[in-house]
Amino acid sequence: MRNWFRIMLTVALAVGIAQGASAQDKVVKSVLELGRTDNRTMQHSEYLSRVIGGRLVGTTALTHAEAWVKEQFESWGLEVMVQEAGTINVGFERGPWSGRMLCEGGQVLHFGTPAYTAGTCGKVKGSVLAEPHSRRELERMKGALKGAWVLLDAESNGMAIDRTEKAETKRAEVIKANEDIDRRNMEIMRWNYEHRDSAARKPVPYEKVTAAFYKEMVEAGVLGFIRSAKVPLQVMYDRAGAFDLTMDTLPTACDILLDEAQFATIRKKVQRKDIFELEFDIRNHFYRGPVAFHNIIGIMHGSKYPKQYVLAGGHLDSYDNGTGAVDDGNGVSVTMEAARLLAASGAKPKRTLLFCIWTAEEFGLLGSKYFVDSKTVPLDAISNYFNRDGGPLMATSVSVPEAMYDDFVRVCKPLENYNPEVPFTVEKRRGPAGPRPKNAGGSDHAYFAMNGVPTISLRETDPKGLNFDYREIWHTERDIYNKLIPEYMEHSAVATAVAMYGLANLDHLLSREGLYKE
Q1: Domain 28-90+291-504 belongs in CATH node 3.10.20.310
Q2: 158, 388, 474, 479: least CB-packed within 10 angstroms?
């Protein structure tokens, strides 16, 4: 009797396992089929980058995007966690901007302004001056600064002019050094005059700092500052001032990043002392906060290990000189479509899947940092976090430590020939493991990795040689919808869904052996 019972129990277990495996296979097959016939990755991308546009922290566009992502997750049957990750004191909105040179046939100017910097009151025109480098130069031109645009020697790095106390301290040091240099140069000028028959001595160059007399020039009434910027224009925000800004401390002088070729033309005209004006119309607007920003997390609860997790994500916020299509509408769209494909396929993962749409990545990884620091889920219960925040490329392989290799081979098997032209491969990581990172990196995987969580991401490539250059669009005006590669992104959504689901259905968490050199 006992033997019969054991046999029946063994058979029942085997049947249960087989049925479970069959159900999993059915879900994966459905994901693969929907990925080919009803892939909506680009629909998500189009809404984010064409309907909503740039989604800067503190703007109504980001608030709109948060509500839309939540609505989409709920429509697919996912539970949604809305997690306030922080607030900013003052909101910012950007309207149209235009500029022209009031000579040379009224040449249209190609420029941008960092977010959270001042706009104009309609069309404003003024003369153009080169910035002073010494106190003597400042005093000589102080009366001419009112109503003028000032050319700065410093080339733009995309960020606003630093207005913090630390920056002012540095300016004071440079001003003091330049006063000594100015005295020496005056002596050199006298010597050269008195020794006209001798070889002239060269003046000592001034020390450089961006806008040495920033406060003095603002107080004198300048319209704004103009810096040279490489094309495509990289235009970001006032990193130091955005969170400290209040409605009582709004900037008053414009901060303009101008096409380097046009800057050079204008600079030559200033050096020749030509008489001309520039006209700008910049609609940068502020509104009273605080303005909250949120992580939006879609949840597919686990059936067997609900307190263990597999995560994937990208960040919703973006700069607003472009439309945030690539950085990181790309990652958001792929993550959202992975969630939709699994939901539509009737997935019931053993572990809980979290589809994490992070906020404020561009302001210092604030959304993912909040998730980790607040211990939203136990970090040792996370099997892996897949981060996508780069180009709109194709997920074609994964490289893992040896202890994870067999698991990933099993999990990624359905992807092996999903696209016969680009077989998906699993590789063992070459070389020894590196140390666990101690400082935050450049994307939302960073705080997970710092806490020892696996952050194995699918390797993204350009297998068809479509000449995508991430540096061309990174934080620039060219981060727009037509830079996306639909075929690559649609494929990556399928790969993300299959990899997440496979890890969720393993009978164990991924091993962390050899992940980092401890």
Answers
A1: no
A2: 474
